[in-house]
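tool_log.txt
---
The assistant was asked to compare two proteins side by side. It first ran the structure predictor on the initial sequence, then on the second. Raw inputs and outputs are pasted verbatim so the downstream comparison step can read them without reformatting.
(1)
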Amino acid sequence: MKKENKNETPVIDENEVIKRKKEKIIQLKELGVNSYANGVAPDTTAENILALYKDEPMEEIKTPGGRAKHSIAGRVVALRVMGKLAFARIKDESGSLQVAFTRDTMGEDAYKIFKKSCDVGDIIWVKGEVFVTRTEELTLLIDEFTLLTKSIRPLPEKFHGLTDKELRYRQRYLDLIMNDDVKKSFITRTKIVKFIRNFMDNNGFLEVETPMLHPLVSGAAAKPFETHHNALDMKLVLRIAPELNLKRLLVGGMGKVYEINRNFRNEGISIKHNPEFTMMEFYWPYATYEDMMKFTENMIAELAEGITGSTDVIYQEKTIDFSAPWKRMTVEESIIAAGVATEDDLKDADTLKEIAKKVGIPADKMEKMSRFKVMMELFDEVVEPTLWNPTFITKYPSEVSPLARRSEDDPEYTDRYELFMAGREIANAFSELNDPAIQLAVFKEQAEAKQAGDDEAFDMDVDYIRALEYAMPPAAGQGIGIDRLVMLLVDAPSIRDVILFPHMRPE
């Protein structure tokens, strides 16, 4: 410990603390105390004890004696030793509970061992009976104690906790110890996935698993991560989407299928993006994208109410109204509604480029872009950030929708929508393209784009064309970003707050 001057708080050298803790382990071993004991398990949790006695008359449990004994195990997060009496707070997976150690209850030798061995941060096992302290707090009076795991590193100072965001993401284990709200968010994430899974199962969908390693790039416009399979001496990519394999299952007659799993995209990291993320993709034979809109609307509205208790959910101090029906607009209608272009403007590529430049889209980026691609750039820049309540944006250009079914009214557009909430895309869906001749032509266009330097273009998948030639039933499909959906329901500002171990730059 060092002190710069008499007015400053002492600064504890963490290396010195670690050194002392390691020395203590050696000293305890000489006393016959194993700092890493095993084979001792609790019979209940802190939460269960609090629930068991919450309705007991306080007068009846003010003093210990004659009641059942309970054992719990967890981390010591607070400790106060006062001679013959000590109080600690033990935190387990369910919550925390105050426990009391006394020389009279434990015996002199056991109490000495407790005082010599127990520190904040340690994981311990204790057994005793409940009583209520003078401050009316339910407490476990301990008569048996075992040190299970010695903590070598000091926990952050309790009043300030762990507030450094980068440290929290890098050392999520420490974040979970110190911040109960973080733990609650990840428990809620699990409940969200479970709810979705049950909803899909109850609606007749079959959960399946498809490969993570693909020989070809397919399923979305994204740059892949590449690897090499030594035994087969071939390049493989981590999947950017499971789409084509799931649609192969439709060809095989598997019916309504879904998969909740990881996708990988070699793109930037931001509050909305992580290179490894969780998505649910599902496919519904004999349905259209309009059926999918109604289904999605019902599922997410029920999810919001089931998780939060209401269809009005507060996100970043602003309400999202999840109640159905949700707003629907075409891409072009949404741009016109934003007031940046007219219907006539949208028909001319040069006019669109001038408008796009005015809103900050670089001219060189658009130099070789078609009218439709500039229109989508304009949508991303001007419209997407304004879509707060759930909104379906429909009628995407065919040029930017290589796997979607062309509209029978106008083949330049597709039967596709994207779902937006809180200014970000949550889902992408469309009636599926199942004409092998059109799909082959699209793959050829994608192959040419890749040859010209587009590293987000698809590969030519000859086997998928062959599968379509065996006939895939008309169907609708959708991908939902689970991480982004969780963000909205737990009020998390960044995707890193809902991924246990987000990707970070090296330390």
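(2)
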Amino acid sequence: MIRICTNGRVYYSVAPQTDTARRELLSAIAQEAGISFQFLSYPLPQPLEELWVRHDIGCVFIMCGYPIALRQFDVVPIAAPIPVAPWAQGCAVYRTDLVVKADSRYEQLSDTCGGRIGWTMRHSHSGFNALRYHLLQYRTPGRPTLYSQVVGNLGTVRNILDSVLDGTIDVGPLDAYWHMLMQRYHPKLAAGVRVIESTATAPIPAFVASPAVPREVVDHLETASVSSTG
């Protein structure tokens, strides 16, 4: 049996509306592709790594491009969303917003140096790798260490947001696409932070399938993903 993962609580699930929209999208893709799927719920805090190694996954929403690029998991990319944002320029990309508390004294990222910074997971681009690369420009021989405290393995982007809001960290990385969803569905909560800087764009997390899924099924899903959203 091939399954579609439509987990209602993972990553880009910020409100019931997003969960419903995602399930409707995946249902439309499956119908367009002429493929019968069984939906699989995979709620947090179950580790995503265990989901990505399953052999019965037909269309997982959604896998970061960083482990795909590093070939950390054997998966087959199917399609990727295009954010409706000026910085995306009509491409399937995203970036990381580096945020601080809205009422903090920080005006630019360099002002946070010497303070506390957080990150999510080592296999995350938006929550770890993009942040790490972005910070390289601020390192100098005289300042090889930028922060007095680094709070790692916070796990989710929501934990980053909460940690900034409660003062556990001074600055943290928010997936900009997730941030847009929060601004739309939880505007009061999102208003508690402000973007102090953003990283360069990178390929956005993709829908992926297990390599055990027949190639013709993946081809049908690719075609259906375009026609269902175009």
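---
observation on (2): The two ends are 28 Å apart (CA to CA). The chain has a mean pLDDT of 87.
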